[in-house]
Structure formats: structure tokens, C-alpha cells
Write a structure and sequence with these properties.
By secondary structure, the chain is α+β, with helices and mostly antiparallel strands. The protein is 57% helix and 12% strand. α1 runs antiparallel to α2.
């Protein structure tokens, strides 16, 4: 931005060197335009300095937050921990069923099968029944069978 200030100074010197009459309308206009350009260049330098200071401050905050995350969560990233937990949950006590209508995967707990209560599991996406423990159906005679079931 120093280049902009230099260019404004050059224009100021050029106007003085041309001996523009300060009394003429054109001379007054050029003088005021050059003055405003100088003020704009100065303000722009202040804004750029403030921007640079803010960037340094945000960078320092980012580093501090990174250190705090590492101290709190350990060296393993949070996403990896969540993935591990989801895999563990998927392996323990959950049944996965694919909806025959929209092919959305629906999960429910195995404990729901232990009850002697008629249970219907519906797809949260389309509302289609994906699993039923209704003993009156033909499938129930062979035991409860999920529609499109795939166990992990």
C-alpha cells in the first residue's frame, strides 16, 4: 500500500509543479481530489494493518483451540472416535433392516424382539412397515422375520 501513498504524493507534487492556480475552479477541484486520495490511502493503510492484526490474532486463537482439543480429546481426532463408537453400537444389539420401498437402512434394538408384544417398525423416511412381530402373518409362523433384513 506504500505504493499508493507514493502515487498520491507524486500527483500532489505534479499539481504543484504545474502551478495550477488555486483560485481557478479546476485547480480547486484537483487540489481537493488529491487531498481526498491522500486520506483514502491513509485510511486504507490503517484498515490493512487492522486486518493483518486480526489475522494474526485469529491464527493464535486457532492454535490455542487446537492445543486444547488435543489435550481434551487426546491425539485421536473427534471424528475417528465417533466412527469407532458408531461401529461398536452397530455391532452390539442392533438389527439393520432395509426398507423395501425407499431402500433406507433402518436400525432397531434386538431387545424389541424379546417382548411378546406385537411390534411394527416403520421406515422413518417413507412410513413403510419394514419389520413386524405380528403373529397373524404367514411369516410369523416361522418366527419374526424382518422385511429385507441384513444382520451385521
Amino acid at each position: 500500500m506504500g505504493n499508493l501513498r507514493e502515487r498520491v504524493s507524486y500527483l500532489k507534487g505534479l499539481a504543484e509543479g504545474l502551478a495550477l492556480e488555486a483560485e481557478s475552479r479546476e485547480g480547486k477541484l484537483l487540489s481537493q481530489v488529491i487531498t481526498v486520495l491522500g486520506e483514502v490511502a491513509g485510511e486504507l493503510e490503517r484498515v490493512q494493518q487492522a486486518q493483518q492484526d486480526l489475522e494474526e490474532y485469529v491464527s493464535a486463537i486457532d492454535e490455542s483451540v487446537g492445543e486444547l482439543e488435543e489435550d481434551y480429546y487426546g491425539s485421536e481426532p473427534e471424528e475417528a472416535e465417533e466412527d469407532d463408537e458408531a461401529e461398536e453400537e452397530g455391532e452390539e444389539g442392533y438389527i439393520e433392516v432395509e426398507c423395501p420401498k425407499c431402500h433406507e437402512k433402518v436400525y432397531f434394538e434386538e431387545d424389541m424382539l424379546d417382548d411378546n408384544v406385537v411390534t411394527e417398525i416403520t421406515c422413518p423416511q417413507c412410513g413403510e412397515v419394514v419389520f413386524s412381530t405380528d403373529s397373524e402373518t404367514d411369516e410369523a409362523e416361522e418366527g419374526p422375520a424382518p422385511v429385507g433384513a441384513t444382520e451385521d
